[in-house]
Amino acid sequence: MSPRLCVALLVAACAARGSSQPRTTYADAPPVVRKRVLLVTDDNAQKPYLEMALLAGDDVDLEKLSPAAFDQRVAKGALPAYSVIVLDDHTPVALPPGPVHILYFHPTGEKAPFRLLRPLHDVEVNRVEGEHDVLRGVAIEGSRIDAASQLSVNPARGEIALAASGQFAVIAGRSSPAGRIVVCSFRPTDTAWTLQATFAVFVHNAVDWLAAGPR
């Protein structure tokens, strides 16, 4: 991704997120509550979709770790507290002590936070829980995803399908005393949606909702 495109996406994302929120005067605006966010990812300078989306806001203090470094710190009990952890194509064997609030992209295996059902290929998002805080103001309906997994969602466990292709949930959320979780069953590179400003709106909505979970 060229630096010019990165800057364009950042500016557009900030504008899109601002337009999705009610406008207030400076006198009425509450103080900004900063969030300490950890992005666990393998560095890829050509595809910094998540990092750019997270940096589009003015209330995020972003730190990054590789998957190996994250796992080592968790195993040693040396991971500091974060408002939100974003796991990019990494499903750790162990997590830090709860409550912990996590945004997953493409979890796999037995440690995935939702049971993964059938694989999905070239699907269109056509069902959206638009009133949920995570998807408010997010234009994802009609987006195509090259590869994903169907998520098993059980409302009795406080789970909700946030976005789906037909009956197949591809984004889901859960809130419990152990923490809040939002799961995207696909990689950021599996959909052109991540190149749109509305993706940054989704990421920041998710971070806001997660960070408001139990402490």
3D architecture notes:
The chain has helices at about 5-20, 50-55, 65-75, 195-210; strands at about 35-40, 60-65, 85-90, 100-105, 115-125, 125-130, 145-150, 160-165, 170-175, 180-185. With about 220 residues, it is an alpha/beta fold. The protein has one domain (about 5-20, about 35-210): Rossmann fold (3-Layer(aba) Sandwich). An 8-stranded mixed beta sheet has the order 2-1-3-4-10-9-8-6. Strands 5-7 form a two-stranded antiparallel ribbon. α1 crosses α4 (about 195-210) and α2 crosses α4. The termini are far apart.
CATH-assigned homologous superfamily: Class I glutamine amidotransferase (GATase) domain
Percentage beta strand: 25-35%
Give the count of structural domains: 1
Class derived from helix and strand content: alpha/beta
- The number of helical runs is 4
Q: Report strand order across the widest sheet.
A: 2-1-3-4-10-9-8-6
Task: Please give the CATH architecture.
Answer: 3-Layer(aba) Sandwich
Total strands: 10
The first-level CATH class is given as Alpha Beta
Mean residue pLDDT: 88
Uncertain runs are 1-26
Task: List the keywords.
215 residues; Rossmann fold; two-stranded antiparallel sheet; globular
Per-chain topology:
Layout: H1 3-19, E1 35-40, H2 49-55, E2 60-65, H3 67-76, E3 84-88, E4 102-105, E5 116-124, E6 127-128, E7 144-151, E8 159-165, E9 168-176, E10 179-184, H4 197-211
Parallel strand pairs: 1-2, 1-3, 3-4, 4-10
Antiparallel strand pairs: 5-7, 6-8, 8-9, 9-10
Helix pairs in contact: 1-4, 2-4
